[in-house]
Amino acid sequence: MNIPLIDQSFVKEKGIFYVGGSLHGEGSDHYYANQMFVEVYVPCEIRHPYPVIMFHGAGQTNVNWLITPDGRMGWADYFVSQGYVVYLAEQPARARSAWHPQVNGPTMHHTAEALQNRFMTAEGSWPQAKRHTQWPGGGEDLNSEISRQFLQSQVEYLPSNKDSQELVLQAGKELLEKTGPAILITHSQAGPFGWLLRDYYPEYVEGIVSLEPTAPPFSRDLTKPAARDYGLASVPLHYEPPVNSPEDFELELLKSDAEDIPDGWVMKEPARKLPRLAGIPIILITSEASYHAQSDHLVSYLLNQCGVQHDFIRLEEAGIHGNGHMMMLEKNNLEIADLVLSWLEKHNL
Fold first, then answer.
1. What's the pLDDT tens digit per position in 206-246?
2. Are 96 and 25 contacting, i.e. CB atoms less than 8 angstroms apart?
């Protein structure tokens, strides 16, 4: 039987439950919408004070954290094996968190070719792409077993980041009330979930591990200083002084001193602050060969402007080379997990 099997002898208990959502419909036709599917894994020995909640990115599901496309241990099992209680949250209106078109509207999906170009090979259009060596199986053959396992795991998702963020913010409150204070691990499109959940429910978020969050924070159009949304998220954050609309931001161009990293928009000084994000350990991690290598520094710069202390780690500077955007699935995924675990231990998390 050629099915990848993972030893889970370190798991004492596991469960699934739903949070958030509400009844919709009329007459005798009612149904729940906007709920969030969550699975939880409890180790045989809990060795850390706070659980970890992992949020996947666009087009993805909890599969990202459970196993790699070539059948190796994923981050969920690895963190449980290290003594963490782990919760995996599947975004509302996606996969096992039911999507209802009459409530949530249309969906979109990544093409296989776009996934291959952005995540699986060294053929991307950004300069750092040529350094990508860590994708399992190489990624050039869309019909290989490893490629198929990854491509078959992809799902439709809501085209509006704002809609997704609002849904997670609503369901996330109930999740955090169940888990108690927690560490958030977010990836890509889920990056704003970490900023928002800490900003709206600061008593429940003890640390944030942000893997290549949505970037750049304001706009990719370098011809005009117009904010796309609220910097770190598409939903308003509690800035001081307050921001009532994206037009309230005054921006200036931050010039890059590196040939392969473009300029980008940041706030003019004196910059607005985000006091609710401050005061907890935060780490921002960027891969060497990812398209995010061109823009994540702008997120770090903005956090500094907002008075939010954090660590910004480019993996190559930590001696970890060749990774793309989907670092938790790649050949050295557990080496990167060890970097995160060491950082958590350093900060008593």
1. 999 999 999 999 999 999 999 989 999 999 999 999 999 99
2. no
Please identify which of the residues 81, 188, 234, 290 carries the catalytic annotation: 188
Residue type, 318: A
Cα-to-chain-centroid distance, residue 29 = 35
Q: Which strand (E) or helix (H) includes residue 265?
A: strand 264-267
According to the model, what pLDDT value does residue 253 have?
96
Total domain count for the chain? 1
Residues 35-53: pLDDT tens digits?
A: 999 999 999 999 999 999 9
Beta pairing, strands 182-187 & 251-254: unpaired
User: Between β-strands 264-267 and 251-254, what pairing exists: parallel, antiparallel or unpaired?
Assistant: antiparallel
Query: Per-residue pLDDT for 2 more than 80?
Result: no
Structural domain harbouring 320: 11-346
Question: Is there a domain that residue 79 lies in?
Answer: yes
In a domain, residue 5? The reply is no
Start-to-end CA span in the chain (Å): 40
We report the CATH number of the domain holding residue 60 as 3.40.50.1820
Does residue 213 lie in a domain region? yes
For the chain, state the CA radius of gyration.
20
Q: What is the pTM of this model?
A: 0.97
Q: Is 188 a catalytic residue?
A: yes
Place of tokens 């350093």: 346
